[in-house]
Amino acid sequence: MTNADQVLDALGDRTRRAVFARVQRGARSVQEIADGMDVSRPAVSQHLKVLKAARLVTDRAEGTRRLYAVDPTGIAAVRDWLDGFWDEALVAFKAAAEQEAVKERKRR
Amino acid sequence: MTNADQVLDALGDRTRRAVFARVQRGARSVQEIADGMDVSRPAVSQHLKVLKAARLVTDRAEGTRRLYAVDPTGIAAVRDWLDGFWDEALVAFKAAAEQEAVKERKRR
DNA sequence: ACTTACGGTAAGTGATGACTAACGCTGACC
DNA sequence: GGTCAGCGTTAGTCATCACTTACCGTAAGT
């Protein structure tokens, strides 16, 4: 399982995307992240575990609190993965469009 | 639910990613896509439905067959979504790194 | 009209995974 | 040492969803 796979699986959940968004907006401790969300703190903790495994966030201890921050690594992984699809998709799309144009011409 | 949400939900499944990859590699009909995969043809059909809703693929009828092709729209949507995170993540990351550097300096 | 190939859909089942409640651990403060 | 706050983890439940089987509609060939 590549890192891109992990990231896509991680971001495949709506709640987890919300957690990730809150971390990115500057939320630090698990409590702060969970506050205002409609899921319990342990749930957030589990989501953070998945996000961390996907290299989307990093954590570090500060006293009894645990501060989370965004990790660009995971984002870079999907980004690269997507770019690959993007390029090949564009090529295929252009080819298909031209194919269509040829057919269109033949019809007349 | 935005298009980016749909795409991320769609790509959150491993099998669906495989289907998408096969379409992108040039597979056209549902049969061709299903051949060699370890799931049945109806399963592939359902996955294609989700991918289509997320604007990741397009379909068009040709006789009794239905040809699928990659649709760049959905990819563009996640790409934009990711780019937003990417930029802000970099900023936050740099800030954090500098914060760390400051602390490091103070320690000495 | 009959048959065959192709594919979408409905219904039902099974498995994955998201969530909560309860517990245990650690660091800070008294 | 005792207490409290902050988190991770476990066990167990519940819901979501991926998958299969069976069925039906449609287009092409005979």
What would your notes on this structure say?
The structure is a homodimer of 108-residue chains. The first copy, chain A, has 108 residues and is mainly alpha-helical. Chain A has a single domain (3-107), classed as Arc Repressor Mutant, subunit A. In chain A, 68% of the residues lie in helices and 11% in strands. Chain A is built from five helices and two strands, in the order ααααββα. Chain A has helices at 3-10, 14-24, 30-34, 41-53, 72-107; strands spanning 57-62, 65-70. The first copy, chain A, has a two-stranded antiparallel ribbon with strand order 1-2. In chain A, a hairpin with a 2-residue loop joins strand 1 and strand 2 (65-70). In chain A, helix 2 (14-24) packs across helix 4 (41-53). Chain A is elongated. Residues 103-108 of chain A have low confidence and may be disordered. At the A-B interface, helix 1, helix 2 and helix 5 of A face helix 1, helix 2 and helix 5 of B. Chain A binds a DNA duplex (30 and 30 nucleotides) through helix 4.
Rounded mean pLDDT of chain A is 85
CATH topology of chain A: Arc Repressor Mutant, subunit A
From the 3D coordinates, which CATH architecture of chain A would you assign? Orthogonal Bundle
Helix content of chain A: 55-70%
> How many DSSP-defined strands of chain A?
2
Task: Provide the succession of SSEs of chain A.
Answer: HHHHEEH
Please report the two chains with the greatest interface, counting residues with C-beta closer than 8 angstroms to the partner's C-beta: A-B, 27 and 27 residues
Q: Mind telling me the C-alpha Rg of chain A?
A: 20 Å
Q: Which homologous superfamily in CATH is the superfamily of chain A?
A: Winged helix-like DNA-binding domain superfamily/Winged helix DNA-binding domain
What profile does the largest beta sheet of chain A have?
2 strands, antiparallel
How many helices of chain A? 5
